[in-house]
Specification:
Layout: E1 10-15, H1 25-40, E2 44-51, E3 64-69, H2 76-81, E4 93-96, E5 109-112, H3 117-120, H4 122-125, H5 130-148, E6 151-154, H6 157-166, E7 174-176, H7 192-198, E8 205-210, H8 219-230, E9 236-241, H9 248-257, E10 264-267, H10 272-281, E11 284-287, H11 296-303, E12 308-311, H12 316-320, E13 325-327, H13 332-344, H14 346-361, H15 365-383
Parallel strand pairs: 1-2, 1-4, 2-3, 4-5, 5-6, 6-7, 8-9, 8-11, 9-10, 11-12, 12-13
């Protein structure tokens, strides 16, 4: 008797082009998929689309192949017709992890939509003239993702609620795969020499702000809250790590107007060990975002034993899981009051550090990858 032919492995493509020269929250998500999925699913073949600016391989796992793609993940070719840039013949499932569903895909797809700010508050993302073009780009790509993806993954219950609010017809297809935090983020001893090299003056305590320079991060509100809390505390500085954004000069002017000249240190993107040192040595993280899909700095700070003061809206309370102090992000006085509590009450600070470490331990990237794999298998099973 002739036996049935062996089943072919599922062929899954993942767009990994966000793993490029600059760090990003989406890049952290993609890195977790690349790190864990090949081991979790040895019965699958993964095709990883690689950014042309990245020279080293994404993975050396035997069930992985990589295709270098010259066009960017958030470029016009991707939006209009991705097969113009890469041959996807034979792919059974495509995972788009960066908010938009590419055009021209013939196979079923899963799109990770981190947030829908480009649909609800585009002015929070990019208020400059170029932002109008970005708004149309993301509106088209996200709307298509919500309408056509076999499943829509998102990284928090808060984001799921917002997606369903604007697209109730997609409710049954929206699933939370909660983000994690890399284990490289862990407490380290304060090293004054390292901090001085980074840009923290010797002998200064500091509060920390981390995130790209987009309006939704509310860095102006963070600075006003810091001034309200510590304007008359000369040994307390504010360190702001801002990956990108053209508002640095405006923040420096605001700092001067608030009487903080010389006490606010604006840093560009820095290496991860230096960021871990900053988190570990800070009196508190100030994170008064207006909206987040997840809010990586909250998780990273907790993992490094840094007390967190963050917003009482969007995904921040969910990510903090009761291990942070919350405040209205539009009320600098309320944020300032919470900051003073952390700095002045050492037992509270110690309790926040303990609870933060416990909460961060629950935010596991391997579990995130496994949750995405379950979605892959669900869609593939429905196609057979």
């Amino acid at each position: 008797m002739i036996g049935a032919p062996p089943s072919l492995p599922a062929r899954i493509a993942i767009d990994c082009r966000y793993l490029g020269p600059r760090p990003s929250g989406i890049g952290e998500v993609v890195a977790a998929l690349v790190r864990h999925l090949p081991e979790l699913a040895p019965d699958c073949e993964f095709t990883l689309l690689r950014n042309a600016l990245r020279r080293e391989p994404l993975s050396r796992a035997p069930n992985v192949r990589e295709l270098v793609v010259g066009s960017p993940a958030n470029g016009p070719v991707t939006l209009l017709h991705l097969p113009l840039a890469v041959d996807l013949t034979g792919i059974d499932l495509f995972h788009a992890p960066a908010n938009i569903l590419p055009g021209g895909l013939a196979m079923p797809s899963i799109t990770t939509v981190h947030d829908v700010m480009w649909l609800t508050h585009p002015e929070w993302c990019n208020p400059r003239p170029w932002g109008l073009i970005e708004h149309h780009f993301y509106r088209h790509g996200i709307t298509r993702a919500l309408a056509r993806s076999a499943l829509v993954a998102t990284v928090s219950e808060a984001s799921r609620g917002e997606i369903i609010r604007i697209a109730p017809e997609a409710a049954a297809r929206v699933v939370v795969t909660r983000s994690g935090v890399d284990r490289e983020f862990a407490p380290v001893a304060r090293d004054a020499a390292v901090l001085a090299r980074i840009g923290v003056p010797l002998g200064k305590r500091y509060c920390l702000v981390v995130g790209q320079g987009a309006p939704y991060k509310n860095h102006e509100g963070a600075l006003r809250a810091f001034a309200h809390a510590f304007g008359r505390v000369p040994d307390m500085d504010c360190v702001m790590v801002r990956r990108r954004g053209g508002s640095g000069a405006a923040l420096e002017q605001l700092a001067a107007s608030l009487g903080l000249a010389g006490r606010v240190h604006l840093l560009d993107a820095i290496e991860r060990p230096d960021l871990v040192q900053l988190y570990s040595g800070a009196e508190a993280l100030i994170h008064p975002s207006l909206c987040e899909g997840f809010g990586n700095p909250v998780a990273e700070a907790m993992a490094c034993g840094c007390p967190v003061v963050t917003s009482n809206v969007s995904a921040m309370p969910e990510v903090a899981g009761g291990a942070a102090l919350l405040a209205d992000p539009r009320d600098p006085a309320e944020i300032a009051a919470q900051l003073r509590r952390v700095v002045e009450d050492r037992s509270l600070a110690a309790d926040l550090r303990r609870r933060g470490l416990e909460r961060a331990a629950e935010l596991d990237w391997r579990a995130f990858a496994a949750a995405n794999l379950a979605l892959y298998r669900r869609v593939l099973a429905s196609e057979t």
